[in-house]
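The protein record passed on below.

***
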Amino acid sequence: MTSATPEERANGLVTLFLDDRIEKANEPPGLREAIVDRLVGQVDDIGKRSQEQVNYLRSPSAQRIPNAYLADEEVVENELQACAAGIRTARALEGVLSDPRRFEHILAQRLAPNMRWALRSEASRVPRPPTRASVLDWSLTPVPWVEDDAEWPPAGGVALANVRQLTGADGEPARVSEEPYQGWVQLGMLERQATLATRYPDVPARQILIATGLEACDGPPPVNSMPLSSAAPDPWAVRYEHIAPRLDAENARIAISSARGPLASLIDYEGQPGSPARERGVGLEPFTLIPRIEVIALLGLRPEAPALRHVLVDDNGAAIVGRQWRGFLIHDGNYSPLEPAIHGADLLLRPDLYGTLVNTAGKDRLTLGMTVHHFEHAPSLSAPKGED
């Protein structure tokens, strides 16, 4: 089998890191080719530097890619910006003239690295809050790890393994006990606690996944469903009128009063141009929540300006707040950077707006949905020390 040529390797780097942005910019003539040409003579050095960085950030027996901004991504980004800077001049030399400010603005919007979602996510990060349904108090103790002799699986997780909906007093949504959101209502919450398998000592990988969410239901929710749906992140940054032009408060009221399903969603960044990779570089948090767009329209909310955090506002200030957290540092038995075992996110609603939501959906139709999963898997007998 022959190895890839420098041109093929350069093309691969451009496809990996820049494809969505160049396509969004309508493939400016010659841009992709210019970047590849500039990379061809650097691919060996890029590979060498990237491998040195990987070796520095993990032990020889580890196989996971370090969560870091590596040389390959850095150099490709630099070459994109260098080549893009000459596009307007190249067009002018071909006799194609355009308004310079407007052209540069549109091009920058389409080609600039889109770190905004990662920055909003980081700006929304808080210390791990205790806010959760009372039946989940056991989950405040982190998942047992390595020499920790705590109970596994936790009795609370076992008891809730087949529970999909809470009723009675347990079915009331959790209220925040700490400032600055004391008394606010938790619309949804998701937390994952996960450890890594190691061979010496012989410890399995363990994981607990907890999700709760307020749902509009006329009966039991579907079996094997989640109390959170899926949605794009746009409403955190774009007014709902621009996303769904035909949606207004009245249409939202009708939809919420009759619809079934979760009122909070887990964000899916798929298709967001330039979104950073989750597993490496300037990445995204694993979990981010957002309210259902009909909830936003019903309450007449909009992103704060500028949209620097996961916050929606009305004329009285902050109305819905998305929080994220991580913590409890662990390792996989290798000489690798520590990483958090706990990642979580929740969605908070101001109390007066919760009253509006209850009156619209109907108190008897609002329930607190839940899913709790726990599992573990042992390290492979053939795995080197410290590997997953």
Q: What stands out?
A: Residues 92 and 162 are 66 Å apart (CA to CA).
